[in-house]
From TrEMBL:
Residues 131-166 are annotated as: Disordered. Residues 134-156 have a biased composition (Low complexity). GO terms for molecular function: DNA binding. It comes from the Bacteria. Residues 177-245 form the Cytoskeleton protein RodZ-like C-terminal domain. This is Cytoskeletal protein RodZ.
């Protein structure tokens, strides 16, 4: 089966295109295009960038970009390994072992019978001599003391709870709805608060006092809203975009 790089290289050569032609049309660096065609994926910084480049490159050549990404994922799966089951240990079923087991069982039965006989003889000799102690009559049982009834007037009156203050909203708010898998880095008031992959269908909101900086590795996969105003997508699929939002 052909690899992703071999398919893209073959299709580019069929169309008579150079690496520079593809770079000019897709904004993908020539270094990354050559790396993809040679299946040298370690050159590209990050899995999100790599999948976006493969998708955009394939779409430009008239291929199905998502099918190329799926093929790349299959090629990265490790081969399955098979393990031989260990042999079952052989059981010793010799006549000698069977005889020794039955002989030991007889001794156990005889020992148990001897213990039962000894216990019965001891009970016959000591059980008749012991007489139950009769309780002495004429001593009345002490009367139970009743606990004093507490006055209901002493119950404390609960103080009213303080009224809850409404939560204060910060002056800068950004909401992002992700329609596809995307790498994101979020900086709030100069401090990074999130960095990683976001799954498709996720809805994220960030708030700040001054600024919110949003960096997306797949800009076409997220629709943004700034302070209640729709911003839309910051770029196209596979494009890396950095956007700073203020008051």
């Amino acid at each position: 089966m052909e690899t992703v790089g071999e398919i893209l290289l073959s299709e580019r050569e069929k169309r008579g295109l150079t690496v520079k032609d593809v770079e000019a049309a897709t904004s993908i660096r020539a270094l990354y295009i050559s790396a993809i065609e040679n299946n040298n994926f370690t050159v590209i910084p990050g899995e999100v960038y790599l999948k976006g480049f493969i998708r955009n490159y394939a779409n430009y050549l008239g291929l199905n970009g998502q099918e190329m990404v799926d093929l790349y994922r299959k090629q990265q799966l490790p081969p399955s390994e098979t393990f031989a089951e260990p042999p079952m240990p052989e059981t010793d079923a010799s006549p000698a072992a069977a005889n020794s087991g039955s002989f030991g069982t007889k001794w156990v039965i005889l020992g148990a019978a001897a213990v039962i006989l000894a216990a019965g003889a001891w009970w016959l000799t000591t059980g008749k001599e012991s007489n139950p102690v009769q309780p002495k009559a004429g001593i009345p049982a002490p009367a139970q003391q009743q606990a004093p009834i507490q006055s209901q007037a002493q119950a404390p009156i609960p103080s009213p709870l303080p009224a809850q203050q409404p939560a204060k909203t910060k002056p800068v708010a950004v909401t992002a709805k992700f329609t596809a898998e995307c790498w994101a880095q979020i900086t709030v008031d100069g401090k990074e608060v999130f960095e990683g992959m976001v799954e498709a269908g996720a809805l994220k909101t960030w708030e700040a006092e001054q600024t919110i900086t949003v960096k997306l590795g797949n800009a076409g996969a997220a629709e943004l809203v700034h302070n209640g105003q729709p911003v839309g997508k910051l770029g196209s699929l596979g494009e890396v975009v950095v956007k700073k939002f203020t008051r």
